[in-house]
Specification:
The complex is a heterodimer. By secondary structure, chain A is mainly alpha-helical. Chain A is 55% helix and 2% strand. Chain B has five helices and 25 strands. Chain B starts with 13 loop residues before the first strand and ends in a 7-residue tail after the last strand. Classes of the chains: A mainly alpha, B alpha+beta. β1 of chain A pairs parallel with β4 of chain B, so a sheet runs across the interface.
């Protein structure tokens, strides 16, 4: 069945968020599927770190302002870590 | 500002650089000028010097690269990641890589090469990303006219903390990013714009939307790359859906959100005498169609329908508005006029013709 647009958007959003946090905030995905809640917690923590860095509202959620910032062209050097 | 983890720095002040290749999107001379200007941004505030070398290894190797270029950090095509650089050190240390697939330019179109290289050189010298939105080392790209570029104070403080001050007799200083809740914040100009309020300060604009609690800080150039920084006066003609912006003896018109073609024009077109060199503040009364221009201790009144100055002006500000002093900025909202003088704001009732309130300049920002 065709994927409902909202679900597709969610997928894209998650992909954007994960790759941004992986590139610039040292987010490491845990490759044990059964530890899903772990992953989500870590993602939320990293998202909060990114929101705090940019002075955005720290919600731990990919809200509009946060996604807007993630879509801005930027430097490839990570914001934290080496 | 933030140092790169481990505080890496060059152990010498006289560094070398080399341009390994060029982008076909710019003339070679323009690329070289952008590099030279970017290096000068940092040498101007530190004891560092940069000498160009050819045909041999330099401390800072500058190159344009495409996707995977064997440094474990592949580029991602147009937009997204524009460039990256490596911290001070041997080999790849200090090197700057620019994504060849970006639209590199020497002006406000695409991505300005000078701005991006100046940022990456900050990494080459040991700085990491700053969370100050006005800093050059802020991670997101933002355009500033290179002719107007000044290294912000946050970056000066950072690089001097690593390499010390410049050898110049007078230490260069840079712009500081305005903080909405800074009690000492003053404004260059203020205008309404389709229900929002725009507060202009240097190269920044603080934007206040009535439905949002936060105040948004942006570079003026983000919305209007062709406008200068340091706007001195502004007002909205609600009926015509226009905002007029003034700097020195010129003015621009925004129609909706876009700078109208054919501007700037001399302010004398509006009827100012040649003795007037700049406008300090302005507001337009939507009900009467009259616009008030404040210059030093006097003001002019302009009829928006006749499109000419009313006779009998200028008049003394104090005689008609009371003791509000020189006006830095003014705007009208919900029937009241708000005059800003330094960190003081006066609320003026144009019907009663008297001051009815006095607040701090930052009262609009929910501090």
């Amino acid at each position: 069945f065709p994927v409902a647009p909202e679900t597709e958007d969610e997928g894209k959003t998650l992909q954007l968020v994960e790759s941004y946090l992986r590139n610039f905030y040292d987010f490491q995905r845990d490759h044990h599927p059964h530890l899903r809640s772990n992953n989500e917690n870590r993602l939320v923590e990293k998202l909060k770190e990114m929101q705090a860095f940019f002075g955005l509202k720290v919600t731990g959620k990919p809200d509009l302002d946060t996604l807007g910032m993630m879509k801005k062209p930027r430097c490839g050097v990570p914001d934290i870590g080496r | 500002y933030v140092f790169t983890a481990g505080n890496p720095k060059w152990k010498k002040n006289n560094l070398t650089y080399r341009i390994l290749n060029y982008t076909p999107k710019m003339r070679q001379a323009d690329v070289e000028e952008a590099v030279r200007k970017a290096l000068h941004v940092w040498s101007n505030v530190t004891p560092l010097t940069f000498q160009r070398v050819e045909d041999k290894e330099a401390d800072i190797m500058i190159s344009f690269a495409y996707r995977d270029h064997r440094d474990n950090s592949p580029f991602d095509g147009p937009n997204g990641q524009l460039a990256h650089a490596f911290q001070p050190g041997e080999g790849i240390g200090g090197d700057v890589h620019l994504d060849e697939e970006e639209a590199w330019t020497k002006d406000g179109r695409g991505y300005n090469l000078f701005i991006v290289i100046a940022h990456e050189l900050g990494h080459s010298l040991g700085l990491s990303h700053s969370s100050d939105p006005g800093a050059l080392m802020y991670p997101a790209y933002s355009y500033t006219d290179p002719k107007e570029f000044l290294l912000p104070q946050d970056d000066i403080d950072g690089i001097q903390a690593i390499y010390g001050q410049s050898n110049a007799a007078v230490q260069p200083t840079g712009p500081i990013t305005p903080q909405a809740c800074d009690p000492n914040l003053t404004f260059d100009a203020i205008t309404t714009l389709r229900g929002e309020i725009m507060f202009f300060k240097g190269r920044y604009m603080l934007r206040k939307h009535p439905a949002r609690a936060e105040t948004e800080l942006n570079f003026i150039s983000l919305f209007w790359p062709n406008l200068p920084s340091g706007i001195q006066a502004a007002y909205e003609n609600v009926e015509r859906d226009e905002v007029l912006l003034f700097k020195e003896d010129k003015y621009w018109v925004l129609r909706g959100y876009d700078v109208a073609p054919g501007y700037p024009k001399p302010i004398y077109r509006l009827g100012f005498p040649k003795t007037v060199k700049r406008v300090n503040a302005a507001y337009s009364d939507e009900t009467t169609g009259k616009t008030y221009f404040f210059v030093a201790d006097r003001y002019w009144r302009y009829d928006e329908n006749k499109r000419s100055m009313d006779h009998g002006y200028p008049r003394k500000i104090v005689s008609d508005f009371g003791k509000i002093g020189r006006v830095d900025a003014a705007f009208q909202k919900d029937g009241h006029v708000y005059f800003f003088h330094g960190t003081t704001q006066f609320q003026f009732d144009p019907r009663a013709k008297r001051i009815v309130g006095r607040m701090k300049s930052i009262s609009w920002f929910n501090c």
